[in-house]
Amino acid sequence: MQAASRESYAAARAQLDSYASSAPAGDVAATAGDVLGAAVLLGREPSLRRALADANRTGADRSALLNQILAGKISEGAAQLLGALVSGHWSRPTDLVNATERLGAEALLASAESSGQLADVEDELFRLGQVVAGDSRLASAVGDTTAELTRRVQLVGDLLAGKATPVTARLAELAVSGFEGRNFDGSVSRLVELAAERRNRSVAYVTVAVPMTDEQERRLVAELARRYGREITAKVTVDPEILGGISVRVGHDLYDGTILRRLAETRNALAGRN
């Protein structure tokens, strides 16, 4: 998003936080569903999203248009949040669609926070990503955008049945449909990061060849927290194919000290001498 869109989203997000701080978790979750439904509507109706992002119309006019279309179909909380969104300034109509989808996801996370389940949601999403990534046939089935979406959603729903919170299950549906235009793996990672951000943490994706001890993980998290100046939540994947060493990714920063990488560098260096 460009600056204008980011500012508009920040204003709507602040309104969400204010609403979620006093509303029951169930009401917040229902509001999230309404907001996500609006995102789907905007995604499939180009003329509507252009009208609601039209800088030549006043924010009040755009908000009134949205209310006219959705009156009686969504909750009051959702109407207020969506009104805040469309009354902002958007650099592109697609920014409004992405912002609506993200606000719906944030509302789901806010409902989990209100019910004390936010850390559980974060861990469940990460484990789901690991399960899918660890099975090539499953990953292919979930990520096959040529297949019917409802079938792919059902596949992931079956994986989570009885093993995850309702919020996790709904966020997993978003991941299957391609949250913010990402593939399934990227969508899950982004949702994990949003959950961590709501807990004022950054996510460190750690890959090791053998499981870390609790003490090793504690020392790593402490060092990363010192380096980044905030709390860190570590998401550890064991991958014997890296042979040894450790890889750590925090945001756009990648620290790759794996033996696999060193062998690749050595191989490339030797090839360059020939």
Automatic annotation (TrEMBL):
Source organism per UniProt: Longispora fulva
Descriptive protein name: ATP synthase subunit delta
Membrane topology: Peripheral membrane protein
MF GO annotations: proton-transporting ATP synthase activity, rotational mechanism
GO CC annotation: plasma membrane; proton-transporting ATP synthase complex
Task performed by this protein: This protein is part of the stalk that links CF(0) to CF(1). It either transmits conformational changes from CF(0) to CF(1) or is implicated in proton conduction.
InterPro entries assigned: ATPase_OSCP/dsu (IPR000711)
HAMAP family: ATP_synth_delta_bact
Cell compartments where the protein resides: Cell membrane; Membrane
UniProt lineage: Bacteria, Bacillati, Actinomycetota, Actinomycetes, Micromonosporales
